[in-house]
Specification:
Strand order of the largest sheet of chain A: 2-1-7-6
Largest interface: A-B, 32 and 29 residues
Number of helices of chain A: 5
CATH class of chain A: Mainly Beta
Order of helices and strands of chain B: HHHHHHHHHHHHHHHH
Distance between the termini of chain A: 48 Å
CATH topology of chain B: Amino acid/polyamine transporter I
Radius of gyration of chain A: 16 Å
Distance between the termini of chain B: 54 Å
Order of helices and strands of chain A: HEEEEHHEEEHH
Strand content of chain A: 15-25%
Oligomer: heterodimer
CATH architecture of chain A: Roll
CATH class of chain B: Mainly Alpha
Largest sheet of chain A: 4 strands, mixed
CATH architecture of chain B: Up-down Bundle
Shape of chain B: globular
Structural class of chain B: mainly alpha
Helix content of chain B: over 70%
Helix content of chain A: 10-25%
CATH topology of chain A: SH3 type barrels
Chain lengths: ~120, ~400
Amino acid sequence: MEDKQMDLVYRVLDDQLVDIEGRRCGRVDDLEFDGSLGDPPRLYAILSGSGTWHRRLPRPLRKLGERIFGTGVSGRDVIRVPWEQVEEISSVIRLKAKARDLGLGQGDERDAALVAKLPKS
Amino acid sequence: MKKLFQIALGIIAAIGGFVDIGELVFDTQAGADFRFQLLWAVPVGVLGIVVFAEMTGRVAAVSGRPVFDVVRMRMGLNVGLITLAASLLINLITLAAEVGGAAIVLQLLFDLNVSTLILLSVVCLVLVVYFVPFGGIERIFGYLGCALLVYVAAAVHLKPNWHEVGQGFVPHLPSSALYAYFVIGVIGAALVPYEVYFYSSGAIEDRWGTADLNLNRANAALGFGLGGILSIALIVVAGEVFFDPHIQPGYLGTTALGAQQAFGEAGLVLALVGMLFAVGGAAVECAFSGAYTLAQFAGWEWGKYRRPRDASRFTMAWLIFFALAFVIVETGVDPVLLTEYAVILSVVALPLTYLPLLLIARDRTFMGDHANGILGNVLGWLYFVIILGVSLAAIPLMLITNGGSV
């Protein structure tokens, strides 16, 4: 494989996302491309969130997957991270912005309010 | 010097932390049913966990990836989800067994109501996990678990026929389904996956890098390796004390009688204290492992080194694990039975965790010069074959032997 080429499934799909502050904030659950027929496709965005999972399950399990993991509502169970926000691909995918600004890590923020009530939290 | 001291402390903690309820149950039953004939299965299992742990520690130190990160990355979403579901179930059953075991030991020590002691066990474990730093948790349970070394002293004190003991280390083919079941149980008890989930995530928590690879080798080889001596001692003591009178150690407390036979009340108390901290430490590892696997699979923030509110879903996950284990044990289910199911199911799920790890550990793209060498690859693939064979035989043997009770 040439240096400028990258195996996206091997190096990017399912990898850990880490924001500019070093916070783990999701995984690369799917990839989104754009482009017209006949044109080369362009990697457009990373999709992160359990709402994408049903699409990757075997066909007979997809309905069940939607019920368990969500149907893929943008902004709720799927977050779209523009590819331009990727800073570096190493053992993790490092992003250029804070998770909060990209809409990532919402689950941790939601539960943080509950955990904050515990002592020395 | 300081580094050597740290390594020594880590090894002592690993020895004390090696034994959990799986070893206490399977090793004691193996000795009671087959005297010394199953001793050879201990080094097979122990070498397996040494190989497995060394690889997970090395992968974590070099690539910064804990086990479930590797599972998700290498096996993809579908197989990863199956592995996750199996691991969570096994962790939960094991956690319930360890909590139940802790309550039984406390009952033997203080003669209080079991239901109250289950609650007390869970509350104490949650408080320790919440307030004590990661290193402190490892050491409290690891050092006090070393009280189980009383079994090594008891094994010598009971003066077994050392020639017969030596013969027990010569592998021989299973003479019955029950024998084969206990071979799998003894190997499986040493190879429980939660230990490597915890070990690898702990390496990330302790911020290991390539400078810590020697520490990793020492912890894996000496800590787990010497921990195997405790397993051998449990079998020898059970073979001496329970085999001839045909005593079936179906109750966890029976295990402690072996030490009592050798050293009277002092032996009994040491055995019970060792058992309490061994199962308590294992309970903590199980709860953490459950939370680690879930967080790593989904990509959440995780780690004891983070403030609870900064890794809130991880914190909620281990708290919920303890709560679920509490509910399971309070139903009155026998912890020994839970242990047997947990160990056998662990064996079945083991290849799913082991394979992706082996693939990453030998991949120079991720591991560079620290990828498996020839020895690592040979041992790695050899153990993959062993694990695969053991995992295929585990469920049929459990059914044929009715969980080892025929």
